[in-house]
Amino acid sequence: MTFYKLSKKQRLVFKWWAAKSGGKYKSILCDGAIRSGKTICMITSYILWAMTKFSGATFGICGKTVQSVERNIILPLMSIADLRKIYKLQYRRSDHRLTVSAKGRQNYFYLFGGKDESSYMLIQGLTLSGIFFDEVALMPRSFVEQGIGRTLSVPEARYWLNCNPENPSHFIKTEWVDDADGANKKRILHLHFLMEDNPVITKEQIEEAKRQFKGVFYDRYILGLWTKPEGLVYPNFTKKNIVPEFGLRDRSKARFYISCDYGTLNAFSLGLWAIMKLPRGLTAFRVAEYYHSGRATGKLMTDAEYYEQLLKLSSGFSIEGICVDPSAASFITLIRKQGKFKVYSAKNDVINGIRYTSSLISDERLLICENCKEIIREFGLYVWDEKATSDTVKKTDDHTMDDMRYFCETFFKTLTGIGASVADPFEDFVKGGWE
Q1: What is the domain partition of the chain in residue ranges?
Q2: How far apart are CA 273 and CA 290, in angstroms?
Q3: What class is the 8-209 domain?
Q4: How far, rounded to the nearest angstrom, does the alpha carbon of residue 136 sit from its chain's CA centroid?
Q5: 3-state class of 260 per DSSP?
Q6: Of 40, 137, 376, 381, which has the fewest Cβ atoms less than 10 A away?
Q7: Residue 152 confidence (pLDDT)
Q8: Residue 346 gets which letter from DSSP?
Q9: What is the pLDDT of residues 68-100, one digit of tens each?
């Protein structure tokens, strides 16, 4: 990768620390739309700054997980020819350390994941000369504050933060963005990016990105706004996403999976899914479903009874895997003991799961057969909790919505994205799988 052309904002990312006004700012915060060219310019400038100002120093590069930092930061960084002409870059995965050296100077960049409130302990006790937060709005306050606290003994330290917008009550908005746009007590250079600020992306690519999102995700990822979610969670679900019942002739062309949201008094939901290769790409069909509400019917069912319903739903289909609500330990154990199915604890990142599922709905790569009445009903009832101060969905009429999200995040995302083979998207999953 070579930087042939930079926008005005991207140029400012590169020179803010070197300009005469550089001493005015202690940190830089870039927020706004996806695909706007924030991250690659920031990490490159971060390395240039560190190598210009320090030698023998230690720095931090942070993301939600170490794996996401390796994928989103380290791999692209290694491909930047302009940087490799100047510096020698060596990444050692065993201790998550990037070493950068040139002309007698050498600095060390350690990778950290800030996925939950306990993550701050990973960074505790270190002295850092600078810290970079990629997608900082996805990290807990305790981790961000601990990371910044690790730099306080180094007068020349700087903080680098980027993110896509989240809820307007998020601490990054109220304590960083609003401060930068107001009194600026934190001495923040705030740059707000849109896709038009990235000279590499074409108009056609911008229009394609716009088609992928609706509702709050359009406001945040396309318009770059810190907005509160309102109304339906999936306003982009339309009649185009409802298709006729899955025919017998289609079975030989598909691979089948089941997703489960578990409940005793609350509803229990099973979804049978088919994945097919179509011209638009891999596409998922909800073929059939089972739904039982103990509260509505007055009848509570046992794990054994639910397992019988699982057998009925899967009858006649070769099931590649079942993902189950991760809180349903007893039901997962029962399925494993029976030995008939491969069962996995479902991935349960609610907001990221909703965002991903929403993009599949917009692309018409998530389709619901018309016989699946319960999920079609819940699409019209599943709404954001507008009274909440963070992104929260109302925990009513959400059971088929949850099992759908489990399927998308646990099976479909893996088959079509990270870890998937280009030649055969199913090969990697069938060989590996998860436990």
Answers
A1: 8-209, 239-431
A2: 12
A3: alpha beta
A4: 12
A5: strand
A6: 381
A7: 95
A8: P
A9: 999 999 999 999 998 999 999 999 999 999 999
